[in-house]
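Lab manual, section 2.4: Encoding a predicted structure.

Procedure: take the sequence of the chain (265 residues), apply the prediction step described in section 2.3, and record the output as structure tokens. A sample record is shown.
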Amino acid sequence: MPLQNAMPLPSDVKLMNTLSVFLGLVFAAMVLALAVAWLMRQSLFNLSAIHVQGDLMHNNAATLRANVAPKLAGNFLTLDMDHTRAAFERVPWVRRAVVQREFPNRLKVVLQEHKAVAYWGPEENVRLVNSFGEVFDVNQGDVEAEGLPLLSGPQGQASLVLQTYQTLFPMFQEMDAVLEQLRLSGQGSWHAQLDSGATIELGHGSTDEIQARTRRFIATLTQVSVRFERNLESADLRYGNGYAIKLRGVTTMDPGDKVDGKKKR
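Recorded output:
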């Protein structure tokens, strides 16, 4: 005779089986959590070394470890890596830090320092600009490079001002002058100062427009200076078809009656 189909389990038995499985899983999870917690507290994972590599021109590994280590909480397994990275990046001159775990109890930190290329801001509250056009703060006494230019402008415009400076600098070298200061006003007007003390109003416009205006100025300035045998004191390049200059003891203006597209008053 064919076997009869097994009778389905009663609902209360199914519930008990499900509950038993659930409680078993909960118990296993609790045991696993306790085991992990116990393991994480073992001295094996206490940080024993922090290896610092990368740019160390203005910091040294021993000082960095001494300054940052007390701010770190936890061991190799529990350490907050974002907090650790931020702690290193708060050290003066450090631009970026990459932090990695090295099993079982070490950290590897690779640093990138700021490379100062210019001062930034008003002279009474000067900061520094790095090669990426980022403004950062350090002790001014730590700046070893001399002859850095002074740049300034609205907040968030350091990269643009640095780019424009790097474009104009070699152009003024053609007239044996050094561009020492470049400022972008809040209204978008550019102002330059040379190492001779001469000031130049570059006017409004993009970097390309300022470059073209400056190229035209430099191309004819030497002829004017030689003619009058005077050095440049100031220049105004905001004219639509020329520029006005003031030489030591002489004032002259290249033809053109408009300043930034408007009559100069």
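Check your result against the sample. Residues 11-40 form the longest helix (30 residues).
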